[in-house]
Design goal:
There is one protein chain. By secondary structure, the chain is α+β, with helices and mostly antiparallel strands. A hairpin with a 4-residue loop joins strand 15 and strand 16. The longest helix has 16 residues. The protein is globular and about 55 Å long.
């Protein structure tokens, strides 16, 4: 998710200690990364902390083994470390979960990817230059709809403390966005990341199934994969469930604790919570055909479009092909929400990497240092 406009500005700098651990049932299996690769990754973690992120954790999963390393702190005030198996808000990774549910519905014949959204949500997708008869389900899932960004609404630019007490309805946010902002381009002309698309995809899941999108994700993905730490916050649930680091945002030039967050405004575009280990498990299961049929996985990865407003990302259907320096093929997503940033992907040979940061970078140097942790973990020997 993009940050709400009032939660902007630059970061500060601090350093921290590094800890690492290895888990896995088969101690004879090859461990993720060589010794040299781990050393490189540890240096990248420390550099990310030095560039301004309070704490960073990386989880590497490969061949049934898992390695976790952490640098910095989870709580600036107390100096407490970034907890093991930390839960954080995973932001736009939520879109990959929602897209997975949609592709299960496609396989069941419940929905046609190339049908206009007007068929399923009549009257919902209409506005200035916006016609639901011309925008397909595929357009929404691939960000080729041309729909404006609902996060630009003035009601999401208010006082943060007040927003903690306010519940937002996805349908109302979509209605407000489409009635006050014009289309950015005709459907299919290009790909531009807009969270509005996935609020609507979540609404479509609910229309097709008759159940909340959170219930469908839980029933179809979380429970079958045994993701014990992953959840969609209940209405009014503003506290993160333990264990978790605090999440920070630069507000008026200061690191500000935004761990407590009312995420109904993020909804099916970015409200989920998980851990590095469980995000790796989800993406690995998805990309190895354990959650969707081969035909639907192929559709998710077919002809990904370069996003005009997200550098280095080609977008499929809820899955992104990510550019990394070593040229490996990587599919995943990533997420951003006030207080937290995640980087997530799986290589063609099965290495899954998730990086968790408890500061959403507002300057290029901090963002680049966080990205470098992910690139190092993906590319290391």
């Amino acid at each position: 998710m993009r940050k709400m406009r009032r939660l902007v500005v630059a970061g500060l700098v601090m350093a921290g200690a590094l800890t690492a651990c290895t888990t896995g049932a088969d101690s004879g299996a090859r461990q993720p990364l060589s010794d040299a690769g781990r050393a490189d990754l540890q240096r990248a973690l420390d550099a990310a902390v030095g560039a301004g992120t309070p704490g960073v954790q990386v989880v590497v999963t490969e061949q049934g083994k898992e390695w976790t390393a952490t640098s910095g702190v989870g709580d600036i005030a107390t100096g407490a470390g970034f907890p093991a198996a930390a839960r954080i808000r995973i932001g736009s990774n939520t879109k990959a979960f929602v897209a997975t549910v949609m592709m299960q519905l496609v396989a069941a014949g419940t929905v046609d990817l190339d049908a206009p959204i007007e068929r399923y949500l009549p009257g919902v997708v209409q506005g200035d230059g916006i016609d639901g008869n011309r925008i397909t389900v595929r357009n929404l899932m691939q960000h080729t709809s041309g729909l404006p960004e609902y996060l630009e609404l003035p009601e999401l630019d208010g006082d943060y403390a007040a927003m903690l007490k306010q519940h937002f309805d996805s349908a109302a946010l979509v209605r407000s966005a489409l009635s006050t902002m014009p289309a950015h381009f005709p459907p299919g002309e290009k790909a531009e990341y807009s969270n509005t698309n996935y609020l609507i995809v979540g609404m479509l899941v609910e229309r097709l199934t008759g159940k909340p999108f959170a219930e469908e994700i839980t029933h179809r993905i979380i429970e079958p994969l045994g993701l014990k730490a992953t959840y969609i916050p209940a209405p009014g649930e503003i506290e993160l469930r333990d264990p978790h680091p605090l999440g920070y945002e630069i507000v008026d030039g200061q690191r500000t604790d935004l761990t407590r967050l009312e995420t109904s405004w993020a909804g099916s575009a970015g409200a989920m919570v998980s851990t590095g280990s469980e995000v790796n498990r989800f993406f690995t299961a998805l990309l190895t055909g354990k959650l969707v049929q081969p035909a639907q996985l192929a559709e998710m990865q077919r002809d990904p479009k370069p996003l005009t407003n997200r550098e280095g990302i080609d977008y499929g259907l809820g899955l992104a092909r990510l550019s990394v320096p070593c040229g490996k093929q990587v599919w995943g997503h990533g997420g951003s929400i006030p207080g937290f940033r995640t980087y997530d992907g799986v290589t063609a040979d099965g290495r899954a990497v998730t990086v968790l940061a408890n500061l959403r970078a507002s300057d290029a140097a901090t963002a680049a240092a966080q990205q470098h942790v992910f690139d190092t973990a993906i590319c290391a020997a």
